[in-house]
Design brief:
six-stranded mixed sheet; about 325 residues; five-stranded mixed sheet; single chain; about 20% strand; 13 helices; alpha/beta; binds succinic acid
Amino acid sequence: MRLFIGAAVAAGVMLAGFVAQAEPIKIKFSHVVAENTPKGQMALKFKELAEARLPGKVVVEVFPNSQLFGDGKVLEAMLLGDVQIAAPSLSKFNKYTKKLQVFDLPFLFKDMDAVEKFQNGPKGQELLNSMEKKGLIGLGYLHNGLKQLSASRELRSPVDADGLKFRIQTSDVLAAQFEAVGATPLKKPFSEVFLLLQTKAIDGQENTWSNIYSKKFFEVQDHITASNHGLIDYLVVTSAEFWQGLEDDTRKVLKASMDEAIAHGNKIAAEKVNSDRKRIADSGRSKILDLSAADRAKWVEAMKPVWAKFSDEIGQDLIDAAVASNN
Ligand code: SIN
C-alpha cells in the first residue's frame, strides 16, 4: 500500500511538472500598419487583455509594419499555421471571396455609422463566415475610416485624375473605380506605397487620414482631396484549424478579449479622423481640398457605374443591405 501511495505521489509530481512546463499557446498577430493606428493599437490591446486573462497559457506576439508578412502573403501563411491572427483590409480578400468587395464600392456608405450598421446587421454578420470553407474565420470588423484621394496634382473633379497612376489594394472593384475616371490603377503592397510616391513611380493613392499620416504619404503628395469616397476597414481573421482547435474556455476568453480590443481600436479610429487630418494640415506639406457638393456629385457620377459591373459577383442582396444602412 505504502509503495502504491509513494508511486502515485511520484506520478502526481511528475504530472504537475509536466503541466507546469506545458508550452503556452503562441499567437502571432501580423499586420502592415504602424503602431500609432487603430489597427496597431487594437493588436496591442488584444495582447494586453489576452495575456492578462490567460497568464502563462497564451503569448501574443504582435508584428506591425509588414515585419512578418506583407499583404500578399499573410493569409497563405495563416493557412499554413505560420500566423494565427491578422486584420487585412476588407479589400484584400479577393482570392478567398468576392462578397467582401461590397465594401469597396465607391460612395456606398454615407458615413461610419452606416458602415457600423451594415457590419452589425444580418448580412454583415453573415460575411464574417463567408470564407469558412476556405479555412478562414472572421472574428469581427475593425474600423479605420473613409478614404481620401491624394495625388501630385489637385483632384477637384474626376477629369483631374485622367491619365494619372494610382496605387490600389488588390481589389478589382478599386481597379474599376480608377479606370472609370481615366486613371491607371496599380495593385501594390502597402509597404511599397511611400517609395512609389516618393520616386514618382505613381502619381497618387487612396487611403484614410490615419494611414496617410502614420506612413507619411502626406510628405510626398502635394494634394489631398477630402473625398470620403470609399472605406478602409478590416476583417480580423484567424484560421479555422487554429480557432476550432482551442479549448472552449480559452476560445471564449480570446474572443471576449478581441471584442474589447476591437472596441478600443474603433474608438481610436473615430478620434484619428480629425486628429490625423489636423496633423497633416498643420504640417503644411500637403494641401487639403474640401469638395463642394457640386464637385462631389461629379465624382459620384463618374464612379458609381462600377456598382453595376460587380453586382453579380458581390450579390445584389448585399449591395441593397449596405445601401439601406444609410437610412
Ligand atoms: C491597412 O490599413 O492595413 C493597409 C491599407 C492599404 O493597403 O492601403
